[in-house]
Amino acid sequence: MEYDYHASCVPGELTQLTPLVIRVVAPNPSVMTGPGTNSYLIGKDELLVLDPGPDDPGHIQRLVEVGDGRISRIAITHGHPDHAPGARRLAELTGAEIIGRPTPSDSGFSYLDIARHISDSDTIEIGGVTLRAIYTPGHSSDHLCYLLVKENLLFTGDHIMQGSTVVIAPPDGDMKQYIESLRMVRDLDPSPVALLPGHGMWMDDPQEVVSSVISHREMREQMVLDALSNLHEKGLDRWVQLDDILPSAYSDTAEQLHPIARYSLWAHLRKLAEEGKVVTGNRDDILANWQVVGS
Ligand SMILES: [Zn+2]
Known about the structure:
This protein is of the alpha+beta class.
């Protein structure tokens, strides 16, 4: 059989990526989800579905058909609405056990559905194939990546996406944790041979990919600090709001993405406040005032 590692993601399309991995792209393309959510069927004689995606009856039916009676487990990377809600329908149709972490209550996916809770380093056995959970908070507080040990492939969910930048939306999203989780994945030993994201295509050279994501975040943090300092220097009020610095801190980002970028900007400011580089009246308020320490 031919394996098409680098096949592009087309909503509704199925690709056998490796002997143990089939990808089915859910039909939910958008600015936030790229070509759509990737659902992965992992295993051979027995299968686990990772991220069934939204509760889309056609997509879930497709997974059932591809699984052909072999789906015994369902795991989720995190509880966001584009990854988890389909688990319930898939479990009803297959009798499969749902595995994941308790998720924040606003995720649209009640943790009561999860039959087996999983933590960092826990393993799942699927007919002789081992999947290991790696806790990677940041994009969300419940986020897990999964390592397919035999093929040394890392399923990254929304921790690392291909083709778009991950949004970190406080308070559940946390930039400091996110960057720490990125460093942890970059330093995995042995390094995985590839990253399989929740959105977008297979990525070779994991260390290089993750390093460049980290550099991108560091660059953004510097742009945020510069934008704050520049406003202070212009003699404007020492306290500025997030929306005052959004255009310059994200000057390289398309303007139609700014309403989403502002959440990541908030996450950067909260990280900087935690590190004592900026101060704010209320880090939990997106409309709070901020200023650089020492300005
Ligand atoms: Zn997602």
